[in-house]
Design a protein that fits this description.
Radius of gyration: 30 Å
Protein name: Molybdopterin molybdenumtransferase
Bound molecules: ligand LQZAQKY5, molybdate ion, magnesium ion
Organism: Rubidibacter lacunae KORDI 51-2
Shape: elongated
Distance between the termini: 39 Å
Largest sheet: 6 strands, mixed
Structural class: alpha/beta
CATH topology of the largest domain: Molybdenum Cofactor Biosythetic Enzyme, Chain A
GO molecular function, one term: metal ion binding
Family: Belongs to the MoeA family.
Number of strands: 28
Cofactor: Mg(2+)
Number of domains: 4
CATH class of the largest domain: Alpha Beta
Strand order of the largest sheet: 7-4-6-5-9-8
Number of helices: 6
Length: 427
Amino acid sequence: MSPPISVAEAEAIVFGLVAPLRECEVAGLDALVERVLAEPIVSADDFPAADNSAMDGYAVRAADLKDCSPQQPRWLRVVEEIPAGRMPRASLDPGEAARIFTGGMLPDGADAIVIQENARREGDRVAVWEPVPPHTFVRTRASFYRAGTPLLSPGTLLGPPEVAVLAVARHTEALVYRRPRVAIFSTGDELVAPGVSPQPAQIVDSNQHALATWVAQNGGVPLRFGIIPDRPDALRGAIAHAIATADVVLSTGGVSVGEYDYVEQVLAELGGTLHVRAVAIKPGKPLTVATFTSDDRVCLYFGLPGNPVSALASCWRFVGPALRKLSGRRCGWQPLFVPARTRDNLCGAGRRETYLWGRLAIAAGELTFSLAGGSHSSGNLINLAGTNGLAVVPLGQPAIAAGEVVQVLQVGAIDAAAGAFTAGTEI
Ligand SMILES: Nc1nc2c(c(=O)[nH]1)N[C@H]1C(S)=C(S)[C@@H](COP(=O)(O)OP(=O)(O)OC[C@H]3O[C@@H](n4cnc5c(N)ncnc54)[C@H](O)[C@@H]3O)O[C@H]1N2
Ligand code: MOO
Ligand SMILES: [Mg+2]
């Protein structure tokens, strides 16, 4: 294995290799979750489109009420009722009010709302005893957005609020970037599929399923290519097929220095350009990154380490940002580090930047980090369950004491309440 390069160098190389995909497709409003917008969305309408009431009450002319008081209430004649969705029939003349409900359109002449709690209705009259300034509880036409205002820009990741905006802008569908196709396979003679009972020397292939789930969660289309034996000819066939099919390839295993670690050799034989061979990071040191360039496209190959924690840690640290950038996201694709106070002592691995998995939570208004209980071997995937952050012990730093603030790579949603984190803890 070549001498490992630093995490910063690896990051610069990997992210620099990625050019966002340009191909687009149209998707319906209900199929936009985790999609990236490829067109600017501009409002065709004022929003709100008309003055409307923010409360249930009475539409009034504010000038009518300027001298009213509890001693001298002002009686107004109620001329109509305006529920949401109904056009007002007439304009308000001085001394008149309209019964109105939240979302109801103001009649011409009205410029304020008196909430019903501050009015007393008697027949077709209503008494008001507190003046209201003009615009009180009125959502004025175009006060949120004017027609022609840009609402969403290309590169935006779409979620519920953005879909609401699209709907309001009267889009029933949107142009989005196509999702990156990600080929995934596991290498190893020892691997069997889940559901098969392994012999003593065999293990279950968990990586392929973890990575497929992770790819789908990160906006890619996972294409599972199965388990490939540790034989150069078999690997050659699998890699050739994968690079011809996908934008990104993720293989696990076979990238270290063992006799049966053939991935790098096969990548070179197939004409790949090798950019990264090993990184000074724990877990995840043997990381192979290569590109295959043809006339019209580049395929990015990640040869991830076989150890299950190393494979996912490499995804969180390097592949995820690359995949999000490839997906067309203009911002938010970079890895997210948050400062958190560690509840446990954290030990570094000397010559490698160390990532210790565990749980971020908010306790008493502060972000905290709890180390996962149990072994921190990169083969122990059991205590990886529930991980939403990996604390970073920088290169050369032997340890970080409990109570200190540490940078944590956030990889999942943060809890509201902190608790000690141990394997098997209900989460
Ligand atoms: N002499 C040295 N040996 C090793 C070094 C080193 O620097 N010098 N690096 C170690 C590190 S660090 C890692 S990480 C591993 C990476 O090894 P490979 O990427 O070559 O992966 P394999 O050898 O194929 O497998 C490693 C380990 O992971 C298990 N595995 C593999 N695939 C899967 C899967 N799909 N699902 C679950 N588990 C899997 C496999 O059985 C091995 O136990 O190399 C170290 N060695
Ligand atoms: O990098 Mo390996 O991932 O230390 O086990
Ligand atoms: Mg190996």
